[in-house]
């Protein structure tokens, strides 16, 4: 089992290395390992995965999409999705 401190340190490091557009929100399907960016105006709409037709999870504006082959990061994302976590940037 991974140490919690190490896990959250890695999550935060991944979050802040991302160059993001505040007008787009990232959606992800952890089953298909597919991510999509959508304009903020449709953020309340239900985004459906084009591969499996399951709903995609709103990951927020700070989400960094891992490589398709990075099993460890996708497992972390699946865990975060199960707990309704999103990568939102909070004001300082």
Topology of helices and strands:
Elements: H1 4-17, E1 24-29, E2 34-39, E3 57-60, H2 71-82
Antiparallel strand pairs: 1-2, 1-3
Describe the structure.
The chain has 92 residues and is an alpha+beta fold. The protein has one domain. It is 28% helix and 17% strand. It has a three-stranded antiparallel β-sheet, with no helix packed on it. Strand 1 (24-29) and strand 2 (34-39) form a beta hairpin. The model has no long low-confidence stretch (mean pLDDT 77).
Strand order of the largest sheet: 2-1-3
Q: Tell me the structural class.
A: alpha+beta
Mass-distribution shape: globular
Question: Helicity, in percent?
Answer: 25-40%
Question: How many strand segments?
Answer: 3
Through-space gap between termini: 32 Å
Domain unit count: 1
* Low-pLDDT stretches: none
**Could you spell the SSE succession in H and E letters?**
HEEEH
List keywords for this structure.
single chain, 92 residues, 17% strand
